[in-house]
Q: What sequence folds into this?
């Protein structure tokens, strides 16, 4: 009789739990619509014009495109990076461009006086890079996986507007690194995250002024990418996120090598190497997918 009483009490509870586990995941989460705080940077609705795909088809002999025209309606952030390298500091006057449509965040940068990577040798051409990082939950604390994108460009000996450049864009996530024995932003592919959120990219280089121009797109959502604390937005959502920018010269050539000795500076301040996961001081970025303008609604 004792066991019968236990079964009579516990069986309904287990039944309710089983039904809940089966049904609840089928209900979508409420849309995330963060209030916009004072001082936040609101990313406008826009698309590059010409598109990044069209820019990448420019041929030798074509005049260089102007990122101020291509990203005419973007949010523009002006800053100066000061990257300490052996025997000097490179002072790089910079403009970062941000815009979005329903599917992509468009990120561009114009870095005046950056020149080639000073750690390159006759045998190896190491990359210049630009990084945008996000505190996706906007809770002031970096936790796995977070989200970021890195544009890397190797400027070869004959680098100019149309020649001598090899570039790539990578996803970055916040995770533990056995190289430095702490959590840092690392390449997502090093953690076997095979789905990439980055889209098309293009770059220019003016060797007379050392100006490096980078422009790429990244998906605002991508099936198969981590959805827990990653930048995976749904239509109708409005996200406020902490963000950080970095500009640097890689001192290593292989992905996965210890990055802590790179020559790098950050905006609004240098935070590399990452000694903690405090992102409470990062500025705020707003991406609002609610109420798109008519030309972006389809």
A:
């Amino acid at each position: 009789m004792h066991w019968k009483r236990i079964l009579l009490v516990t069986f309904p509870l287990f039944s309710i739990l089983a039904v809940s586990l089966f049904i609840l995941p089928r209900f979508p989460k409420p849309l995330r619509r963060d209030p916009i705080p004072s001082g936040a940077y609101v990313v406008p609705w826009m698309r590059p014009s010409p598109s990044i795909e069209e820019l990448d088809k420019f041929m030798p002999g074509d005049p260089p495109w102007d990122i101020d025209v291509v990203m005419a309606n973007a949010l523009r952030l002006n800053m100066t990076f000061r990257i300490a390298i052996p025997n000097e500091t490179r002072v790089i006057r910079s403009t970062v461009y941000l815009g979005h449509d329903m599917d992509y965040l468009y990120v561009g940068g114009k870095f005046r006086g950056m020149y080639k990577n000073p750690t390159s040798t006759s045998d190896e051409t190491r990359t210049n890079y630009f990084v945008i990082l996000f505190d996706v939950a906007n809770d002031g604390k970096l936790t796995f996986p977070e989200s970021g994108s890195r544009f890397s460009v190797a400027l070869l000996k004959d680098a100019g507007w149309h020649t001598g450049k090899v570039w790539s864009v990578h996803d970055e996530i916040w995770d533990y690194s056995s190289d430095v024995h702490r959590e840092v932003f690392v390449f997502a592919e090093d953690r076997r995250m095979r789905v990439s959120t980055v889209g098309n990219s293009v770059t220019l280089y003016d060797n007379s002024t050392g100006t490096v121009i980078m422009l790429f797109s990244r998906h605002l959502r991508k099936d198969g990418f981590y959805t827990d604390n990653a930048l995976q937005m749904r239509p109708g959502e409005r996200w406020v996120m902490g963000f950080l920018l970095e500009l640097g010269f890689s001192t290593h050539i292989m992905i996965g090598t210890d990055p802590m000795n790179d020559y790098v500076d950050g905006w609004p301040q240098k935070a590399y190497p990452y000694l903690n996961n405090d992102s409470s001081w990062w500025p705020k970025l707003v991406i609002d997918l609610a109420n798109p303008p008519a030309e972006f609604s389809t």
Q: What stands out?
A: Residues 45 and 100 are 5 Å apart (CA to CA). Residues 2-23 form the longest helix (22 residues). The radius of gyration is 23 Å. The helical segments are 2-23, 52-55, 67-70.
